[in-house]
Q: What sequence folds into this?
C-alpha cells in the first residue's frame, strides 16, 4: 500500500532483484499509488524471473506495463526465450489471456504502426508476416519483398475476390478503369484466349466523341482484294478450325483496321511515342463500315443493271 513508489532499485551493479525458491509468489507489489516497480540503469538484468509458471504478473492501474528504452531507436521491449547456443533460441510470443476464450489483443497508436521484417538482414531467414487461424493454417502472409498471399476470400468494402479454381478468380463486381480511355485489357504478347459476354463488346460511337468525320473511300474494290482463310493456332490446345484474315495481307488493303503499334506517353518528354507491336492484330469490327460500303456499291451496280435490262 505504498502511497508513491513501491520499490526503486537504482544503479544495480549486476542483478537488481533476486528471489529464490518462493513457495507461492516471488514478489508482490499491491496498490502502489504511482509506480509499482522502478528499475533504473541496471548494468546487467534489471529483473530476471526463472522457472515460474508466469514470469511476471502486473495487474491494475491505468497501464499494465510501461516500458521505455534509454535512447530513441532502441527497443522498448524484447521478447525471446533461452538461446541454446545455436542461435535457434525461442521465439518471442505475445498472447491474450489463455483462460478467457473471448480475450482479444489490441494495438493502439497515436501515429503509425510499423513492422520490420528481417531486421538483421540474414539472407536465409524466412522473414514473413503471417496470420494463422485456430487450425494453424496460414490465412494471410506477407514476405519481406512485399509478396502477399491470402487464403480464402479477399473483401474490399462489399466487393470480394475469391480463388474459385485452377487459374481462376471470381469477382462479384464490375471492373472499371480509374481513367477513361487510358487502360488496356491484355496486350500483343499477353492475350486472353476468349471473352464470354451476353451482349458482346460495345464500342463508343457517339458523334459527340468524334472529330474529322468523313465518308470512307474503301468499298467493294477492297473487299474483293481480301483473302479470307481458315487456320489453326500454333500455340493452342484448341484443335478447332478458325476463320479469319491474315493481318499482313489485310494491311496492304485496309491498313487502318490492322493494329501494328501503340502510343505510349514518354514520362520524360510528356509526348506520345509510337511503339511497334511484336504481333499484328485486326479490328474486325472496323471492317463493318467497309463491308457496308461494299454492299451499297454492289447494290448500286445491281440497280443500274436492272434499269438497263428493263430498257432492253
A:
Amino acid at each position: 500500500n505504498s502511497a508513491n513508489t513501491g520499490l526503486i532499485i537504482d544503479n544495480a551493479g549486476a542483478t537488481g532483484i533476486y528471489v529464490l525458491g518462493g513457495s507461492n509468489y516471488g514478489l508482490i507489489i499491491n496498490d502502489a499509488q504511482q509506480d509499482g516497480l522502478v528499475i533504473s540503469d541496471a548494468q546487467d538484468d534489471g529483473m530476471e524471473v526463472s522457472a515460474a509458471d508466469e514470469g511476471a504478473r502486473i495487474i491494475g492501474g491505468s497501464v499494465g506495463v510501461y516500458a521505455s528504452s534509454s535512447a530513441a531507436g532502441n527497443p522498448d521491449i524484447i521478447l525471446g526465450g533461452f538461446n541454446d547456443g545455436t542461435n535457434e533460441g525461442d521465439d518471442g510470443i505475445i498472447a491474450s489471456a489463455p483462460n478467457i476464450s473471448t480475450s482479444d489483443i489490441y494495438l493502439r497508436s497515436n501515429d503509425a504502426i510499423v513492422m520490420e521484417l528481417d531486421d538483421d538482414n540474414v539472407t536465409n531467414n524466412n522473414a514473413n508476416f503471417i496470420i494463422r487461424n485456430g487450425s494453424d493454417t496460414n490465412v494471410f502472409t506477407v514476405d519481406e519483398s512485399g509478396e502477399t498471399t491470402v487464403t480464402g476470400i479477399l473483401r474490399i468494402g462489399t466487393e470480394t475476390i475469391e480463388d474459385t479454381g485452377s487459374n481462376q478468380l471470381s469477382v462479384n463486381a464490375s471492373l472499371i478503369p480509374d481513367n477513361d480511355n487510358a487502360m488496356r485489357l491484355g496486350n500483343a504478347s499477353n492475350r486472353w484466349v476468349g471473352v464470354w459476354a451476353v451482349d458482346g463488346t460495345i464500342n463508343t460511337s457517339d458523334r459527340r466523341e468524334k472529330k474529322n468525320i468523313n465518308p470512307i473511300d474503301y468499298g467493294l474494290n477492297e473487299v474483293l482484294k481480301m483473302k479470307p482463310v481458315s487456320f489453326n493456332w500454333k500455340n493452342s490446345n484448341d484443335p478447332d478450325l478458325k476463320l479469319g484474315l491474315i493481318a499482313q495481307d489485310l494491311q496492304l488493303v485496309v491498313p487502318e483496321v490492322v493494329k501494328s503499334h501503340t502510343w505510349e506517353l514518354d514520362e520524360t518528354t510528356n509526348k506520345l511515342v509510337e511503339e511497334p507491336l511484336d504481333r499484328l492484330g485486326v479490328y474486325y469490327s472496323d471492317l463493318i463500315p467497309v463491308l457496308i460500303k461494299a454492299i451499297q456499291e454492289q447494290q448500286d451496280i445491281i440497280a443500274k443493271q436492272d434499269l438497263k435490262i428493263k430498257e432492253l
User: Anything to note?
Assistant: The mean pLDDT is 84. Helices lie at 220-225, 247-251, 288-311. Residues 1-114 form one domain. The first helix runs from residue 220 to 225.
